[in-house]
């Protein structure tokens, strides 16, 4: 007993004396919800239908913002939440709506209306900032796309009202709970979808559901919160443990542990036979508690812990407390870690602090309690409200705790008892700008050279021009019509046509394209060029013609029979195949490395006029002049038609293209766009599972099934599902292409002399481009979608500059969604991207590296082994790699993470002006200031085209990474006496 009291006393001294700092008043009604945003911006909702916002001012404390209160709801406010980077605010109400606000100005961005118009009890942002999830009385989960302002999916999740909901910090899992005490854990609900359908089927709900805990709290769950940190069990480095707190109407607070096991992929070095043909060798996923070889997985995390209970012990523990667990996912284990008792009545809210070491809970007993998570000890009981406390929340640095009550007040508690109203907690932008002006890192040394920013040079004279498509350059082709064009990256352009040649242009100073001397033009064919395309690596240019040949510049040999015209030829996205088709009704795939024929399929009865390859390089779509579309598996052992869509377009199909995002990231379908002589553009959903074996890698499928019984006719191939028809052109539509970054937009060209840009998910025509005076035959986007090229029979090719708000909102959403929040989830492509932007020297990884080196390995393999895999021999390069790996592992694995008492201890140039927090990935924008990358991308995503520091229109929305500042921040946070091991 004495030891226990001594421990509590020690914890109390460490935690400080919590004290009341300030009292805020809600003039007309009780406070129902509250939240802290970036820079100590605070918002609260009340029963009077209003949302109020306060900001910190030195000497006065919290003062109501100039744009407060926010009026937009018809009934009481039930939830307010800031976006992860603090640029947006979402408020929900029992009127069935959720309103998205600009957190800086209070301007309404959009209103989302719940399905069936039922009351919304809460809404939360996904950790990647691009999705908003709302739930309420109908028991359904609604997932909203913030960029598109559309409903992504609606799941019938619970049979009762959903009152609590929270995301895991890596954005993978969503926890929902209801008024009868059921907890449900969902997986991948906020993955981008390609089928353009609003609602999810029951089978999809079952697939997303990972685990169910019944009777978690008697009489229902009222609140939940995931800890912001993730941990790894000591006996399995491939497992991730999430900590969750819940509260309910039984006066208890419970702390849960969710442990999920990740599949392990073993590294195959370049000389290993298993690494041939791009194959990936998978090792079995270990069960929880099974040992993992340190030789294959490298060092374990120093902050790891031991799982206390086995599966049997966990389930028995839950049953003793009246709960039961049903695991729908064999790699997920749920256990009850702590039960915290102390409140005298129902608990209304629970929230972790930023470091996940403390937990706050509010109750109908008029108190707020502070808990120490590791021991489950109650550190403080905060008393000050005269009626029940409805909500509580920590500030983002953990120094303040706010509690809102039915007594119409909000109490601001100084958690450590060291603050006063005279402290400069949130410096103003002007003060922040003044402090940055003396930075040794040139944060405000004038606007940088825009040509060095990611995305290339852009300039605009007015805010209006940022929202219009501008004609950038007109290129003449005096000797023939332009039939085809293609971009490589943002700086190279190829086109061909009636002059039988392929022309190569490159971007010069001043953003204009000029023909490459001594290379272009290329005398390619005896007849007009039908199609030209760069390979994904940019080393090759392929073209095809009516002379029956498809020629690849610097590709071994010619492709084609030479007897029939080839109408179309395209590279597979992985660059391993060049696929050609034409008048002989045959589609052939040739290896780009050897020039050998890999695959040949037949099935069309008329000339093949268009083809497209899925982004994962596993599915081929071909279309013919008769209007039919066929689908094939890209595998030399599979030549059967897997999908047949008859009469897709009257009078024939002219072009087709796959969305670059659909079919990737675990989605179960492809999105195909087609166009034809019926003046229409159509979007089709093609299921990935077409009764074919699963492909373990591109160009590789398992043995096909046995042929159908001769007593029974084979089942006809399934058709595609028509999702949307886009009408607007006044003539034959000749070409369609998706934007390559995210597939958010689609361009089409037609014989009516126009090109149209469409919103894929809204179905709206955004722009009609009128610059040609004859049929527009072709189109192509640059890599970042900032440029569009259109070719025409009028012997010109036009380069269009797309509006930056259109491009960069899409790019920002794509970046926020595409980059996993934790390095453990990185794909090989993510790893290569990190290496290229982090290291000061260029790297040229082999194919084996780009297909095998994932995030798990970059965090666990020894530094010298990774250097060997990358073929690094220079000692300085190896040392730099080891240092970057050391900092990455410090940041990702929370090893020896420094405890920063306040931002006043940090140099101001290390703080992001938007979030006022230490930057992890600093970037320099066109205004000359440095921001956290995710923060400025969320800024663009919310529709802002201005500088966060000067409020003036940005000349460009592109940015470049600040490597020097990133290195200084890493040294400040993580450097110690130990050097990285490079031996």
Automatic annotation (TrEMBL):
GO molecular function terms here? ubiquitin-protein transferase activity
Signal sequence segment: none
Pfam families per record: U-box (PF04564), WD40 (PF00400)
Sequence ranges assigned to domain U-box in this UniProt record: 905-979
For this UniProt record, give its keywords in alphabetical order, as a comma-separated list.
Repeat, WD repeat
- Tell me a GO biological process for this protein: protein ubiquitination
Query: Origin, by domain of life?
Result: Eukaryota
Q: Quote the biased-composition stretches of kind Polar residues, using this chain's numbering.
A: 274-283, 438-450
Which SMART domains does the record associate with it?
Ubox, WD40
Provide GO CC annotations from the record.
transferase complex
Supply the name of the protein: WD repeat, SAM and U-box domain-containing protein 1
Record flagged with keyword Oxidoreductase: no
